[in-house]
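Thread: Modeling a multi-component assembly for a lab meeting

Hi all, long-time lurker, first post. My supervisor asked me to bring a structural picture of a complex we are working on to next week's group meeting, and I have zero experience with this. I have the sequence lines for every component (420 residues in total). Could someone generate the structure of the whole assembly? Inputs are pasted exactly as I received them:
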Amino acid sequence: MDKFLISGPCRIKGQINIQGSKNAALPILASTLLFDNAVVIENLPRVKDIDTMLNLLKSLGSNIQIYNNKKTVRISRIKNSKYLASYSLVKTMRAGILVLGPMISKYHKSITSLPGGCLIGARPVNFHLNALKKLGMKYEIKKGYIHASSKGKLKGTQIKFSKISVGATENTIIAACLAKGKTTLKNCAIEPEIKDLTNFLNSGGAKIKWVGKRTCQIIGVESLNQTRYSVMGDRIETGTFCVAATISNGDLKIKNFNPKIIQTEINILKKTGAKIKTSKNEIHIKGPKNIKNINSIITKEYPNFPTDLQAQFMVLLCKAKGRSSITESIFENRFMHVAELRRLGAKILIKENRAIIAGNTQFIGAELMSSDLRASVALVLAAIVSKGKSTINRIYHLDRGYEKIEKKLQKVGVKIKRLT
Ligand code: EPZ
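Re: Modeling a multi-component assembly
Sure thing. I ran the full set together rather than chain by chain. Output:
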């Protein structure tokens, strides 16, 4: 298994280009199952989860041609579609559940593996199943698989999500595209990646309109036709590199990302002392000599502070002058990085879903273990500003969502190498 060797401390200086968004690309790729003819998707991130989704689509009968060094794919449906989304693929990437909505909507039949949990939580899919059932899907769960079917087309209806869920919102919007009549979804998640998904579907002839802050209306259509679409920039990669510049007293230019999308994060980074200038598609961020503490950050649904940046900001607050706290309100077990940060010298107290960070920490390099995608990148950030050498094991977690991160970091001054 690959590991990273990082010698710190380093200052992040220079310029990086942001990869395409993994969390926009995954639902967009899954929704290609709705289309009758070829679609071209551009600006895909070259990360493991995208490979897994493409393999899943192939196993369901999609013909996939890859161009432009894996950043562009042309997907078309072959006649004899298959209906089994297997555990072997879905277990490694929970977003595999997103093929259920398009399959049931287009083919009225699907056998999709339950994704199972992961380290950050049980990750149930009850909101997905309840919503698709309201559209007319019948299902039963047998041996870890969702055996689903519908009598002909799904039927549009009114659905109010009992809790805001990114995946359930995506699955239901996708399924409603080919349902009969109008579907109104209330209490939707409104992450930018979901807006990217609805822009993509509308570009293929879907009729989706956001009629309220968290209300989406979908008028079912007969079919979707070919389209070409470029995926938005990755919001979490951008946030991660903003933290990297802030924590290392760095000076970084981040290109091809619309800064308006991460206004919440930018406001917090300014409070820690970062100097941030933004233009249409660029962020220029300079880290402060002294990082100021933040009394309380609470992770919530967009447009509030995102859970996917919680670990990265925790590392930053370890370096702040004074005490801070972070409350994780989305997932039940997303503090795996804390034990590893303590190995570097961090002083963090956990009380239920709240982390109290003492601050004023001088990290000393150590051997570290990755646990999940975002916790792993937080360890990389900590190692960059640690004194001495750090080794980060099991970086396959990182490769799921960050495109060649060591190459990007080397280009902006980090002494990092991948040991295979
Ligand atoms: C998406 O996961 C993202 N994944 C996650 O990013 C992100 O952390 C999460 O949204 C929250 O923003 C992708 O987009 C591929 P949810 P998702 O449904 O859709 C509970 C990363 O690092 N819930 O909004 O699974 C759930 O357990 C990943 O890129 C149910 O109880 O998130 C969680 O506590 C990690 N029942 C909360 O709701 C359900 O049916 C929010 O989950 C669905 C969710």
